[in-house]
Amino acid sequence: MLNQNYSLPVTIDTGTQPWEASPASKVWRKKLERESAESGRATSLVRYDAGASFKTHQHPDGEEILVLSGVFSDESGDYQAGSYLRNPAGTEHAPWSEDGCELLVKLCYFRTGDLQNVRIDTQKAGWHQGNTAGQKLIPLHQFDEEITQLIWLEEDQTWRPVVPEGGLELFIIEGSLELDGNILNAQTWLRRPGFNRCEFTVNQGPVRVLIKTGHLPTEPV
């Protein structure tokens, strides 16, 4: 098990992590949290070299993908950077990347009954006004208590996201934030336990952040 104690805060600057080989040739990953070696709940950065592919495989408990760079492809289409995908439980695919890509991938976090297949190009989706003039958001997915959003923050913003019982998880796509005197660079992954107060300030903007709440287990793991 890796970073599976959800009662503890975790912050990882993935830019300092080495790439590790995956079971597929020319596909690499950085493990952020993992229930077991090749099954169960997991969050990873994944890199496809040009021409890399995976054999057809199923996702018994769902797969969530944010394309960070390049173009990711499967039988349903080609997805450029900024694409947000959800493959619900029971689906299968044989993905590839012609020119290479990098992804943020979460496995086995789908709630029972969440069968929505999602394909959103956030580069084309319209931004909604946030809580302040310097905040915008794109709703990506909601099912029961689980909420996934893309947040945009301009310079000099202070951001106080609500941290519910199950905690929050975020990934900084662009820019950098400051939290408790520490600078969080782009490509930083962060998880905070329930009711843990967070006050971020924009260190270098604009900032784009993927934030998720309501998906983390509240029972001991």
- H-E order: EEEEEEEEEEEEEEEEEEEEE
The average pLDDT score comes to: 94
* Secondary structural class: mainly beta
Large-scale geometry:
globular
Helix content: under 10%
Index terms:
221 residues; mainly beta; nine-stranded antiparallel β-sheet
Describe this entry's structure for a reader:
This protein is mainly β and 221 residues long. The chain has strands at 10-13, 20-21, 27-34, 42-48, 52-53, 57-59, 63-74, 77-80, 83-87, 91-93, 96-97, 101-107, 118-121, 128-129, 135-143, 146-153, 158-159, 168-179, 182-184, 188-192, 200-213. The protein contains no helices and 21 strands. Strands 1, 14, 15, 16, 17, 18, 19, 20 and 21 form a nine-stranded antiparallel beta sheet that branches.
Task: Give a nutshell description of this structure.
This protein has 221 residues and is mainly beta.
Helices and strands, with pairings:
Blueprint (H helix, E strand, L loop, with lengths): L9 E4 L6 E2 L5 E8 L7 E7 L3 E2 L3 E3 L3 E12 L2 E4 L2 E5 L3 E3 L2 E2 L3 E7 L10 E4 L6 E2 L5 E9 L2 E8 L4 E2 L8 E12 L2 E3 L3 E5 L7 E14 L8
Antiparallel strand pairs: 1-20, 2-3, 3-4, 4-12, 5-11, 6-10, 7-8, 7-9, 7-12, 9-13, 14-15, 15-16, 16-21, 17-21, 18-19, 18-20, 18-21
